[in-house]
Write the structure tokens for this entry.
Amino acid sequence: MRTLVKRFISTMSIGVMVLGISFSANAQSIKSEKEGKFAPGAAAAKETKTVRANQVWYFHGGSSDLPTDASKYSLTPDKDCGGTAEAVCQINAPANPSNPSQPDMSAPVTPSGSSTPTTIALRISAADSSKTPNETVTDFRPY
């Protein structure tokens, strides 16, 4: 009787170990499939989305310069913002990847209250024509 009980316990122990190994291998297989390692024709690299941080840029242009001209901005102010709203003074925009010393005017931005993205340049034009700040243009100044 004792021999029968010992065999039963050892058989059950082996069965539990086999089930554990099987579940572990299956979980690893599922994880690998989610990561795209076994997707047919797919590379092992994951798709990544780069999010660039906004910076505060200051407009250095005059009355004849367009506020959407990226070359007219720098990270340091030349005049104080505030006062009469004649010209764009400061904007929030990411740096241009090909020229980090200028804002990226084609970067996407979603206006508050909207689900449709637009560009930094279009938001600057909208704020400049209405002389009203928005999520991109944060302040104005006199020329």
